[in-house]
Amino acid sequence: MQRLRRVVIGAVRWLLRIYLLLCGVLFFVQRSLLFHPVPAVGGGAVVSLDVDGVSLRIATRPHDGPRALLYFGGNAEDVSQTVPELAAAFPDRAIYALHYRGYGGSGGRPSEAALHGDAAAVFDDVAARHPEIDIIGRSLGSALATRLAATKPVRRLVLVTPFDSILAIAGRLFPWLPVRLLLADPFESVRDAPRVSVPTLVITAGRDDVVPVLHTRRLVEAFAPGIVTERLFPDAGHNDISLDTDYLGEMVNFLDIAASPPSWPATPYAGLRPLP
Asked: Which parts of the chain have pLDDT scores under 70?
């Protein structure tokens, strides 16, 4: 009996060691699992902005006037390829799409804190020239867009396949791991949503296998009543929703609301530097 007890205790200790080792490995490699940088292969104009000594690249379509559209793309998205589509849909706005740290030629390495700081810096720089700013955030970018709408004078907000939090999604995928203790970048948009007071459009993919609809619904429920307009694309998936012919049309209908009378300074690029 004593021998059996020692065997059981020994087995439990080995299992515990293996479990702790697995937790440690996941802790140190988590950002390589979360972030998927891609190079920029799209053409068009590019400007740079220095933030805390890191040079960020921003794909853009310049346009004089008070109105601008900031776009924060999804993981593994080359936003320089998205800018032409947005420029065609919104000809009356300047377009700015941030290549996240480590993405598309931007310097640095991505983290939640760094990306939120970069998004705020880009907003402040653009706001110096365009006082009326709409924001679109897709997937990972929805977290940055939601935080900006909660803390900056955004005109309108569009969220495409957004989530309540990476923490919640990871907890659902790995219920046997202490993800709350391990996760360095929880991206808890559900905490920012109650502070958003501007009209918000949420676009959901009915067949989303990356951000299950449950997690989008939880985010929507966190907004104050009357803030969110929802649009469901029942046959779309997470990555192909933008192929739907009504995708951009929904954004145009929502964002193309008459802005307040223009009162803006025709100042040149401030922190942004045009790149060849």
From this structure: 4, 7-8, 10-12, 257-276
Predicted confidence at residue 222, as pLDDT, reads 97
**In this predicted structure, what is the pLDDT of residue 179?**
85
Classify domain 35-274 at the CATH class level.
alpha beta
- The Cα–Cα gap between 67 and 260 comes to 10
The 8 Å CB, 24+ separation contacts for 233-237 are 233/203, 233/204, 233/205, 233/206, 234/206, 234/207, 235/206, 235/207, 236/205, 236/206, 236/207, 236/208, 237/205, 237/207, 237/208, 237/209
Task: Specify the pLDDT at position 144.
Answer: 98
Q: Look up the pTM and report it.
A: 0.89
> Residue 47 and residue 131: Cα distance in Å, rounded?
19
Residue 22: the pLDDT is: 76
Q: How many CA atoms lie less than 13 Å away from 276 in the CB half-sphere?
A: 0
Q: Give dist(CA 96, CA 71) in Å, integer.
A: 6
Cβ atoms within 10 Å, residue 200: 25
Nearest to 241 by CA among 39, 70, 73: 73
Q: Which residues pair with 95 in a beta bridge?
A: 61, 69
Q: What is the pLDDT of residue 4?
A: 65
